[in-house]
Automatic annotation (TrEMBL):
This is 6-carboxy-5,6,7,8-tetrahydropterin synthase. The keyword Coiled coil does not apply. Keywords: Lyase, Metal-binding, Zinc. It comes from Saccharophagus degradans (strain 2-40 / ATCC 43961 / DSM 17024). Its EC number is 4.1.2.50. It catalyses: 7,8-dihydroneopterin 3'-triphosphate + H2O = 6-carboxy-5,6,7,8-tetrahydropterin + triphosphate + acetaldehyde + 2 H(+). Pathway: Purine metabolism; 7-cyano-7-deazaguanine biosynthesis.
Amino acid sequence: MQLFVDNLTNLDFSYLHPTRGVVGETWLASVVLDGALDEQGMVCDFGIVKKMLRKWLDNEIDHRLLVPTQASTLTINPPADRASLSWPISSKGTLSTDCPEQAIARVTAESITPESVAQWAITQLQPLFPQSVNKLSLTFTPEVITTPFYHYSHGLKKHGGNCQRIAHGHRSKIEIWRNGELSLPDMSAWADLWADIYIGTEEDVVSTQGEHTAFVYTAQQGEFSLKLPSACVYMIDTDTTVEFIAQHIANTLKQQNPADSFTVKAYEGLAKGAIASS
Protein backbone atom coordinates (compact mmCIF):
# COMPACT_ATOMS: atom_id res chain seq x y z
CA MET A 1 0.00 0.00 0.00
CA GLN A 2 1.18 3.51 -0.78
CA LEU A 3 0.44 6.79 0.95
CA PHE A 4 1.22 10.05 -0.86
CA VAL A 5 1.29 13.76 -0.11
CA ASP A 6 1.74 15.98 -3.16
CA ASN A 7 3.19 19.47 -2.75
CA LEU A 8 3.77 18.91 0.95
CA THR A 9 5.81 22.09 1.27
CA ASN A 10 8.06 24.41 -0.71
CA LEU A 11 11.71 25.09 0.03
CA ASP A 12 13.73 28.25 -0.65
CA PHE A 13 17.51 27.83 -0.59
CA SER A 14 20.71 28.29 -2.58
CA TYR A 15 23.23 25.76 -3.82
CA LEU A 16 26.73 25.63 -5.28
CA HIS A 17 27.12 24.94 -9.00
CA PRO A 18 30.50 24.64 -10.80
CA THR A 19 29.67 27.08 -13.62
CA ARG A 20 26.61 29.01 -12.46
CA GLY A 21 28.03 29.82 -9.01
CA VAL A 22 25.64 30.29 -6.11
CA VAL A 23 22.13 29.54 -7.39
CA GLY A 24 18.92 30.58 -5.64
CA GLU A 25 16.27 27.89 -5.92
CA THR A 26 12.70 27.04 -4.95
CA TRP A 27 11.41 23.46 -4.99
CA LEU A 28 8.11 21.80 -4.17
CA ALA A 29 8.47 18.63 -2.08
CA SER A 30 6.20 15.58 -2.53
CA VAL A 31 6.40 12.24 -0.74
CA VAL A 32 5.22 8.63 -1.18
CA LEU A 33 5.35 6.06 1.62
CA ASP A 34 5.26 2.29 0.96
CA GLY A 35 4.25 -0.03 3.78
CA ALA A 36 1.80 -2.34 5.47
CA LEU A 37 -1.38 -1.17 7.16
CA ASP A 38 -1.16 -0.77 10.93
CA GLU A 39 -3.92 -1.50 13.47
CA GLN A 40 -5.61 1.76 12.45
CA GLY A 41 -5.73 0.69 8.81
CA MET A 42 -3.05 3.23 7.88
CA VAL A 43 0.45 3.10 6.46
CA CYS A 44 1.19 6.15 8.60
CA ASP A 45 -0.98 8.90 10.03
CA PHE A 46 -1.08 11.92 7.69
CA GLY A 47 -0.54 14.19 10.68
CA ILE A 48 2.72 12.44 11.53
CA VAL A 49 3.88 12.46 7.91
CA LYS A 50 3.22 16.15 7.41
CA LYS A 51 4.60 17.29 10.75
CA MET A 52 7.75 15.17 10.66
CA LEU A 53 8.64 15.83 7.04
CA ARG A 54 7.89 19.55 7.10
CA LYS A 55 9.91 20.01 10.28
CA TRP A 56 12.92 18.14 8.89
CA LEU A 57 12.82 19.87 5.49
CA ASP A 58 12.39 23.28 7.11
CA ASN A 59 15.25 22.67 9.54
CA GLU A 60 17.74 20.94 7.24
CA ILE A 61 17.23 22.43 3.74
CA ASP A 62 15.06 25.55 3.77
CA HIS A 63 17.02 28.84 3.80
CA ARG A 64 20.38 27.04 3.76
CA LEU A 65 23.25 26.90 1.29
CA LEU A 66 23.39 23.33 -0.10
CA VAL A 67 26.97 22.09 -0.50
CA PRO A 68 27.86 18.90 -2.44
CA THR A 69 30.47 17.38 -0.11
CA GLN A 70 31.69 14.79 -2.64
CA ALA A 71 32.55 17.37 -5.32
CA SER A 72 36.28 17.19 -6.08
CA THR A 73 36.58 20.99 -6.36
CA LEU A 74 35.14 21.73 -2.92
CA THR A 75 37.37 22.69 0.00
CA ILE A 76 35.50 22.60 3.32
CA ASN A 77 36.37 22.17 6.98
CA PRO A 78 34.95 19.24 9.00
CA PRO A 79 31.53 19.73 10.64
CA ALA A 80 31.83 22.08 13.61
CA ASP A 81 30.13 25.14 15.07
CA ARG A 82 31.17 27.08 11.97
CA ALA A 83 31.49 26.14 8.32
CA SER A 84 34.27 27.48 6.13
CA LEU A 85 34.45 26.56 2.45
CA SER A 86 35.92 27.47 -0.92
CA TRP A 87 34.29 26.75 -4.30
CA PRO A 88 35.71 27.60 -7.76
CA ILE A 89 33.19 28.94 -10.28
CA SER A 90 34.37 28.02 -13.78
CA SER A 91 36.44 30.89 -15.22
CA LYS A 92 34.76 33.55 -13.07
CA GLY A 93 36.76 33.10 -9.87
CA THR A 94 36.22 31.52 -6.47
CA LEU A 95 33.43 31.72 -3.91
CA SER A 96 34.28 31.44 -0.23
CA THR A 97 32.18 31.73 2.88
CA ASP A 98 32.51 31.41 6.63
CA CYS A 99 29.28 31.11 8.57
CA PRO A 100 27.49 29.26 11.37
CA GLU A 101 27.16 25.54 10.59
CA GLN A 102 23.36 25.83 10.61
CA ALA A 103 23.52 28.07 7.53
CA ILE A 104 24.67 25.26 5.22
CA ALA A 105 23.53 21.72 4.38
CA ARG A 106 26.31 19.20 3.75
CA VAL A 107 24.71 17.05 1.05
CA THR A 108 26.50 13.76 0.41
CA ALA A 109 26.62 14.03 -3.37
CA GLU A 110 28.91 15.11 -6.21
CA SER A 111 26.43 17.76 -7.39
CA ILE A 112 23.19 19.34 -6.24
CA THR A 113 20.17 18.12 -8.21
CA PRO A 114 16.59 17.33 -7.18
CA GLU A 115 17.48 13.64 -7.36
CA SER A 116 20.72 13.81 -5.36
CA VAL A 117 19.18 15.95 -2.63
CA ALA A 118 16.16 13.63 -2.43
CA GLN A 119 18.39 10.56 -2.05
CA TRP A 120 20.44 12.24 0.68
CA ALA A 121 17.29 13.37 2.49
CA ILE A 122 15.76 9.88 2.35
CA THR A 123 18.78 8.37 4.13
CA GLN A 124 18.29 10.91 6.93
CA LEU A 125 14.51 10.56 7.13
CA GLN A 126 13.89 6.82 6.79
CA PRO A 127 14.92 5.94 10.39
CA LEU A 128 12.46 8.50 11.77
CA PHE A 129 9.36 6.69 10.49
CA PRO A 130 7.46 3.78 12.10
CA GLN A 131 8.38 0.20 11.18
CA SER A 132 5.20 -0.06 9.13
CA VAL A 133 6.85 2.22 6.55
CA ASN A 134 9.05 0.03 4.33
CA LYS A 135 10.11 2.67 1.81
CA LEU A 136 10.16 6.43 1.56
CA SER A 137 10.19 8.22 -1.83
CA LEU A 138 10.81 11.94 -1.98
CA THR A 139 10.69 14.16 -5.06
CA PHE A 140 11.61 17.81 -5.51
CA THR A 141 10.24 19.78 -8.45
CA PRO A 142 10.52 23.45 -9.43
CA GLU A 143 7.40 25.51 -10.02
CA VAL A 144 6.21 25.48 -13.62
CA ILE A 145 6.80 29.04 -14.82
CA THR A 146 5.93 29.97 -18.41
CA THR A 147 6.97 33.64 -18.15
CA PRO A 148 10.39 35.18 -17.37
CA PHE A 149 12.04 34.35 -14.04
CA TYR A 150 15.41 34.55 -12.34
CA HIS A 151 17.41 32.79 -9.62
CA TYR A 152 18.73 35.10 -6.90
CA SER A 153 20.56 34.65 -3.61
CA HIS A 154 20.90 37.12 -0.75
CA GLY A 155 21.10 37.52 3.02
CA LEU A 156 19.03 39.70 5.36
CA LYS A 157 21.10 40.52 8.43
CA LYS A 158 18.22 42.31 10.18
CA HIS A 159 15.83 39.36 9.87
CA GLY A 160 14.99 37.51 13.08
CA GLY A 161 14.57 34.15 11.33
CA ASN A 162 16.62 32.10 8.88
CA CYS A 163 16.54 34.76 6.14
CA GLN A 164 19.52 36.29 7.95
CA ARG A 165 21.75 33.55 6.47
CA ILE A 166 24.07 35.20 3.97
CA ALA A 167 23.57 32.80 1.04
CA HIS A 168 20.03 31.54 0.67
CA GLY A 169 17.78 32.25 -2.27
CA HIS A 170 14.79 31.79 -4.48
CA ARG A 171 13.67 30.95 -8.00
CA SER A 172 11.29 33.78 -8.76
CA LYS A 173 9.16 35.08 -11.57
CA ILE A 174 8.84 38.77 -12.33
CA GLU A 175 5.88 40.67 -13.74
CA ILE A 176 6.19 44.24 -14.99
CA TRP A 177 3.52 46.57 -16.32
CA ARG A 178 4.59 49.55 -18.42
CA ASN A 179 1.89 52.20 -18.70
CA GLY A 180 -0.68 49.66 -17.55
CA GLU A 181 0.30 46.96 -20.08
CA LEU A 182 2.15 43.77 -19.17
CA SER A 183 5.63 44.17 -20.68
CA LEU A 184 7.35 40.91 -21.61
CA PRO A 185 10.46 42.74 -22.94
CA ASP A 186 11.00 44.42 -19.55
CA MET A 187 10.39 41.15 -17.72
CA SER A 188 12.84 39.29 -19.97
CA ALA A 189 15.49 41.97 -19.56
CA TRP A 190 15.47 41.67 -15.76
CA ALA A 191 15.33 37.88 -15.92
CA ASP A 192 18.46 37.93 -18.09
CA LEU A 193 20.21 40.53 -15.91
CA TRP A 194 19.55 38.56 -12.73
CA ALA A 195 20.16 35.04 -13.98
CA ASP A 196 21.98 33.28 -11.09
CA ILE A 197 22.70 36.56 -9.31
CA TYR A 198 23.71 37.44 -5.77
CA ILE A 199 21.93 40.64 -4.72
CA GLY A 200 24.17 42.47 -2.26
CA THR A 201 23.67 45.42 0.08
CA GLU A 202 26.18 48.27 -0.24
CA GLU A 203 26.69 48.69 3.51
CA ASP A 204 27.72 45.03 3.91
CA VAL A 205 30.65 45.29 1.47
CA VAL A 206 34.05 45.15 3.15
CA SER A 207 36.24 44.92 0.06
CA THR A 208 36.24 44.80 -3.73
CA GLN A 209 39.68 43.34 -4.29
CA GLY A 210 40.38 42.66 -7.95
CA GLU A 211 37.43 40.88 -9.51
CA HIS A 212 35.85 39.73 -6.23
CA THR A 213 33.41 41.36 -3.81
CA ALA A 214 33.39 40.50 -0.11
CA PHE A 215 30.51 40.90 2.34
CA VAL A 216 30.54 40.65 6.14
CA TYR A 217 27.80 41.16 8.70
CA THR A 218 26.74 40.03 12.15
CA ALA A 219 23.18 38.80 12.77
CA GLN A 220 21.37 37.00 15.58
CA GLN A 221 22.71 33.59 14.49
CA GLY A 222 26.30 34.82 14.38
CA GLU A 223 28.87 36.31 12.03
CA PHE A 224 28.61 35.74 8.28
CA SER A 225 31.10 36.39 5.51
CA LEU A 226 30.91 35.75 1.77
CA LYS A 227 33.33 36.52 -1.06
CA LEU A 228 32.43 35.81 -4.66
CA PRO A 229 33.27 36.98 -8.19
CA SER A 230 31.96 40.49 -8.83
CA ALA A 231 30.46 39.23 -12.10
CA CYS A 232 28.01 37.23 -9.98
CA VAL A 233 26.92 40.25 -7.89
CA TYR A 234 24.29 42.96 -8.34
CA MET A 235 24.47 45.76 -5.76
CA ILE A 236 21.63 47.83 -4.34
CA ASP A 237 21.81 50.62 -1.74
CA THR A 238 19.16 49.12 0.57
CA ASP A 239 18.58 45.79 2.26
CA THR A 240 17.53 43.05 -0.14
CA THR A 241 14.02 42.26 1.06
CA VAL A 242 11.58 41.53 -1.75
CA GLU A 243 9.89 44.86 -0.95
CA PHE A 244 13.12 46.75 -1.63
CA ILE A 245 13.85 44.58 -4.67
CA ALA A 246 10.46 45.40 -6.22
CA GLN A 247 10.94 49.12 -5.56
CA HIS A 248 14.50 49.06 -6.93
CA ILE A 249 13.33 47.54 -10.21
CA ALA A 250 10.46 50.02 -10.51
CA ASN A 251 12.71 53.02 -9.74
CA THR A 252 15.43 51.86 -12.14
CA LEU A 253 12.94 51.43 -14.97
CA LYS A 254 11.52 54.89 -14.24
CA GLN A 255 14.97 56.48 -14.30
CA GLN A 256 15.69 54.84 -17.65
CA ASN A 257 12.25 55.74 -19.08
CA PRO A 258 11.06 59.00 -17.41
CA ALA A 259 7.98 59.34 -19.61
CA ASP A 260 6.59 55.91 -18.65
CA SER A 261 5.00 54.54 -15.49
CA PHE A 262 5.80 51.10 -14.08
CA THR A 263 4.31 48.57 -11.70
CA VAL A 264 6.51 45.66 -10.63
CA LYS A 265 5.30 42.43 -9.05
CA ALA A 266 8.44 40.76 -7.72
CA TYR A 267 8.09 37.23 -6.41
CA GLU A 268 10.12 35.69 -3.60
CA GLY A 269 9.96 32.01 -4.50
CA LEU A 270 6.48 30.53 -4.78
CA ALA A 271 3.27 32.61 -4.69
CA LYS A 272 4.54 35.42 -2.47
CA GLY A 273 6.33 38.71 -2.97
CA ALA A 274 5.82 42.45 -3.21
CA ILE A 275 4.33 45.03 -5.59
CA ALA A 276 5.89 48.45 -6.18
CA SER A 277 5.19 51.31 -8.57
CA SER A 278 7.13 54.23 -9.97
